[in-house]
Design brief:
By secondary structure, this protein is of the alpha/beta class. The protein has 2 domains: 37-151 and 350-398, D-Maltodextrin-Binding Protein, domain 2 (3-Layer(aba) Sandwich); 154-346 and 430-489, D-Maltodextrin-Binding Protein, domain 2 (3-Layer(aba) Sandwich). It contains 19 helices and 15 strands. It has helices at 2-17, 51-65, 76-88, 104-108, 118-124, 131-137, 160-163, 166-176, 186-195, 221-233, 255-266, 280-288, 300-307, 362-372, 375-382, 410-425, 438-453, 459-477, 479-489; strands at 37-41, 68-72, 96-100, 139-140, 143-144, 146-150, 154-159, 209-212, 292-298, 318-321, 329-331, 336-338, 345-346, 351-355, 429-430. The strands form 5 sheets. The chain has a 5-stranded mixed β-sheet with strand order 2-1-3-14-6, with helices on both faces. The protein starts with a helix and ends with a helix. 46% of the residues are buried.
Length: 491
């Protein structure tokens, strides 16, 4: 037996050394996507927001799979232009589009995006995605096209420790005749902002301000304007908001939006100097440095205050609330104001991943997109400051204690998550414009509203100008097709 064993070993050895042209498989050949490549387009935003994790994960994914992931990061306007160009020029296709919801119409309206297959849904745990995203921003006409990356909602932030100051509560009640509390309407919000404006309420030797919000022209300030206007103009019994459903005539110059723009302008009087040019990072920096009492922002601000080294306030000093509402709302069909409380949530600004239907490596594209949208990775990203990835899954709200790694106490994390959850379960909600040409509609309004902020036009004049531009955009694209698409988006 020993002789036979040695003989077998010898034969195997001779066979091996006699076949030196047949090399053992290399590590590279064991990688499932070696030799394949895809291209991802995602815009360059401030300080690596949105694109940062994608670029980091692309490197890791390449090492693990052998694939080549090229991440293209133009600026905002270039991203729109390059995306449009890639949809019409042969052999210029991006495999994955990382897009803000306002670009959905451009991609889905032209049938450019692959439907999400079942194996991808299973891989990312599709049922864990919140319905408010799964059934709206990630789907069109009943079919899923987008993978969740960032779930956005706009909320109110305030200095909880200052609000609870007994001396300030007495002073406020003496001045306004009611108790100081988290403002439930924009009228209350303006009074609180005015009360805390331009005096040293935190005792640091310099005056602080009442509030802050995004206003910068050419940014995404229009999303916050529509969040403000929703209290007056999003009639709770009507799904339409931006346009009349049957005609696509703009509603943006009716009485509700004019009232909202008046508030939007007035609030800059209770903000730091230069507030009409503040971008999102200016809002966050001013709040976490203790320079303002209130801020309107996405979920980024909560974690930014908890984790950022420039923050001078603790997470326990931060209060969280809903976007203010209104005690009256404008009925766009009867053209009459109705005395009923109306509080509307805004989930504007979400980011999703879409796979090009014509991708030459569609399987690889879905693999990388599902990696970025995975339950495990998203749990890490939402609890990390500085990437603008916010909660979008049921699982993101299940364990407040897990957020303590990000600078929250468990109590502050729970309060933060509870307010976001309230926003994301509100049935009266404003989404982004998702029509083809959405960027043009936003830009037109942005330009006109900024004229009102600068005092060049009255609010009514500015919105009349914008509405006229919107009609021109609609007619250029095609009113019938836009009406059809708008109705589908409201289902």
């Amino acid at each position: 037996m020993r002789f036979k064993s040695l003989l077998i070993v010898g034969v195997l050895f001779i066979t091996f050394i006699g076949c030196d042209d047949k090399k053992a498989p290399s590590q590279e050949n064991l990688k499932p996507y070696a030799g394949q490549s895809i291209m991802v387009i995602v815009p360059t935003l401030h300080a690596g927001l949105i694109r940062g994790p994608i670029m980091d994960e692309a490197k890791k994914f390449q090492e693990q799979t052998g694939a080549k992931i090229r991440v293209v990061t133009p600026n905002w306007n270039e991203t729109i232009a390059k995306t449009k160009q890639s949809l019409t020029v042969p052999n210029l296709n991006y495999d994955i589009f990382v897009v803000s919801t306002m670009w959905n119409g451009m991609l889905l309206g032209g049938d450019y995006i692959a439907e999400v297959p079942k194996w991808v849904k299973d891989k990312i745990d599709w049922e864990d995605v919140l319905p408010i995203y799964k059934n709206t921003v990630l789907s069109h006409n009943g079919k899923a096209y987008g993978l969740p990356y960032d779930g956005d909602c706009i909320n109110l932030y305030y200095r909880k420790d200052i609000l609870e100051n007994k001396q300030y509560q007495e002073k406020f009640k003496k001045e306004y005749g009611y108790d100081l509390d988290i403002p439930k309407t924009w009228d209350e919000y303006k009074k609180v902002a005015k009360f805390f404006n331009n005096w040293d309420w935190d005792k640091d030797g310099k005056p602080e301000y009442g509030n802050i919000g995004l206003r910068k022209k050419g940014d995404i300030a229009m999303l916050q304007f529509f969040a403000t206007a929703a209290a007056y103009g999003k009639y709770p019994d009507d799904k339409a908001y931006f346009f009349d459903e049957d005609t696509l005539k703009p509603r943006i110059n009716n009485e509700a939006f004019v009232k909202a723009l008046e508030d939007y302008i007035e609030l800059t009087n209770y903000a730091p100097n230069g507030a009409i040019n503040f971008a999102g990072h200016d809002v966050r920096n001013n709040f976490v440095r203790g320079e303002v009492f209130m801020a309107i922002d996405w979920a980024d601000l909560g974690i930014y205050a908890a984790e950022n080294p420039i923050s001078t306030i603790s997470s326990d000093q931060v209060g969280y609330g809903q976007i203010p509402g209104s005690n009256r709302v404008f009925n766009p069909k009867t053209k009459v104001w109705e005395n009923r409380y109306n509080q509307v949530s805004s989930i504007s600004g979400n980011w999703s991943l879409f796979v090009n239907k014509d991708s030459k490596n569609k399987k690889l594209a879905f693999e990388f997109a599902s990696h970025m949208a995975s339950k495990e990775l998203s749990a890490k990203l939402v609890a990390t400051s500085g990437n603008a990835v916010n909660p979008s899954r049921f699982s993101h709200f299940e364990n407040a204690a897990s957020w303590t790694q990000s600078g929250f106490t468990e109590n502050s994390a729970r309060r933060y998550l509870d307010e976001i959850s309230k926003s994301l379960t509100n049935k009266n909600v404003v989404y982004d414009i998702t029509l083809p040409g959405a960027g043009e509609y936003y830009q037109a309004l942005d330009e006109s509203v900024y004229k009102a902020l600068k005092g060049v036009l009255t609010p009514q004049e500015a919105l009349n100008e914008a509405a006229k531009k919107w009609d021109t955009i609609t007619d250029k694209i095609g009113r019938k097709s836009q009406i059809k698409y708008y109705k589908l988006s409201l289902k």
